[in-house]
Task: inverse folding
């Protein structure tokens, strides 16, 4: 399937599923015209003009909630909603919803100590940037 | 997704420098940010480094953060930038110029109908308002589809507008006729045009809504 303008837009936002990101990267390396098109998207955005798809994706206007994704994982999301959620994940390939779903799955298997150690490290390496009262 | 009250309160506490609040934010979002980054990097250690940079980036940008913007989306966008930077440094992601070679100014040249609206000075604030108006109209139409169980219509619109698929590709994906896809697209865009017109916005601003 040839790359669409929307694919390039999503690529620039790191919003395509990983395997499709790699596909676009390969195409960018092989086709200079695609670099020009991607560059034109940057220019358009800098001029404050956004496509419908960009607005839809950035606003996450049709993303299932994290709670709904949790219900999907548990197999308790109602039929039509579950069908749409699977479409949004597997066909649209929403990277943000895929990340939420992966996180929900990981929470079921990852050990508490591993998680707490990681969170402590994130806190320790960033807390110095906390400001005082504003 | 609009920001929740609890997110707004959390941000207020973080702005006041409360470490417990910062811990709460990390606990709430680190897992999904890590999953987002690791899916691309396939390397846990490197992914944790990028997520670490994301949290630092969030705190340093906090004075400019608009609390009306959903926090998860904001964090994901910072993570995407940090990830892009990382991949570029690794040579895995090609550099894309901010303007096409040989262009002048911003490098973006509007075409067709858009040229008329763009020739009129529109401040960035005005453009922001226009995008917000369209976002509200889109959200309303999407919710309308959901509440009425118009899932095929919603899927059509998402395939066409978000993934840029052709009518033929969308029809094949959804196992419906191309005519049905065309009808759904027409109805969806007609509703958006109506919403945009009601807000008194010139049609030239959103050429996509009027493409044949």
Result:
């Amino acid at each position: 399937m040839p790359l669409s303008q929307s694919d390039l837009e999503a690529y620039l936002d790191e919003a395509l599923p990983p395997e499709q990101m790699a596909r676009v990267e390969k195409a960018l390396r092989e086709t200079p015209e695609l670099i020009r098109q991607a560059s034109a998207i940057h220019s358009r955005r800098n001029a404050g003009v956004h496509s419908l798809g960009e607005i839809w994706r950035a606003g996450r206007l049709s993303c299932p909630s994290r709670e709904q994704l949790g219900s999907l994982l548990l197999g308790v999301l109602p039929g039509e909603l579950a069908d749409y959620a699977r479409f949004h994940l597997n066909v649209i390939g929403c990277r943000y919803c895929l990340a939420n779903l992966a996180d929900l799955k990981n929470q079921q298997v990852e050990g508490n100590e591993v998680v707490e150690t990681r969170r402590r490290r994130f806190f320790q390496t960033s807390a110095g940037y906390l400001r005082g009262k504003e | 997704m609009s920001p929740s009250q609890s997110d707004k309160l959390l941000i207020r506490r973080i702005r006041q420098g409360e470490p417990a609040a910062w811990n709460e934010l990390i606990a709430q979002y680190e897992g999904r940010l890590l999953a987002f980054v690791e899916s691309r990097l396939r390397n846990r250690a490197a992914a944790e480094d990028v997520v670490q940079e994301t949290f630092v980036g969030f705190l340093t940008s906090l004075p400019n953060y608009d609390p009306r913007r959903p926090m998860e989306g904001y964090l994901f966008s910072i993570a995407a930038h940090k990830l892009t930077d990382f991949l570029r440094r690794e040579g895995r992601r090609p550099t894309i110029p901010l303007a096409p070679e040989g262009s002048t100014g911003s490098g973006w040249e509007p075409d067709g109908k858009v040229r008329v609206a763009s020739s009129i000075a529109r401040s960035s604030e005005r453009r922001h308002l226009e995008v917000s108006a369209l976002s509200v109209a889109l959200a309303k139409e999407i919710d309308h589809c959901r509440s009425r169980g118009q899932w095929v219509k919603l899927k059509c619109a998402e395939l066409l507008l978000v993934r840029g698929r052709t009518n033929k590709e969308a029809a094949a994906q959804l196992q419906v006729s191309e005519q049905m896809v065309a009808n759904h697209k027409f109805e969806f865009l007609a509703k958006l045009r109506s919403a945009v017109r009601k807000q008194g916005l010139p049609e030239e601003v959103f050429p996509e809504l009027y493409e044949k």
User: Anything to note?
Assistant: Chain A has a mean pLDDT of 92. The CA atoms of residues 56 and 62 of chain A lie 8 Å apart. Chain A touches chain B through 73 residues (CB under 8 Å). Chain A has two domains: 5-59, 66-123.
